[in-house]
Amino acid sequence: MKHPISIALSLILAVVISLLTLTPISVQGAPGSDKLYHLLAFGALAFPLAFGSPRNAVWVALLAIGYGALIEVIQPYVGRSAEWGDLLADAIGACLGALAGWSAARLTTFVRKAIS
């Protein structure tokens, strides 16, 4: 990894995601809004790692999807329910975040080369 800040940011996001997804909730949002939150959270998780190491963007997406699957496996043991839809939203978010991170890294490299 070129950017230790990318790693640190993703680790912080992973902890926040764990806290939000593994604690019981009492308030329900709009129907389906949780899927949007999953997509955004896992996109945010994958983006910095893929930006910091664009050559590993596919592995970043797979790692984030695996993390989402692990959370879904743990949830029934902490008073939450596992849902395939949540895992699908996690996977879509992870792939989009990794793609965006890879694209941003490539664009940054292109701009740096064009300027110099």
TrEMBL record:
The chain crosses the membrane at residues 57-75, 87-105. It comes from the Bacteria. It holds the Pfam family VanZ. InterPro entries: VanZ-like. Keywords: Membrane, Transmembrane, Transmembrane helix. The keyword Transport does not apply. The keyword ATP-binding does not apply. Residues 33-100 form the VanZ-like domain. This is VanZ like protein. It comes from Donghicola tyrosinivorans. The lineage of its organism: Bacteria, Pseudomonadati, Pseudomonadota, Alphaproteobacteria, Rhodobacterales.
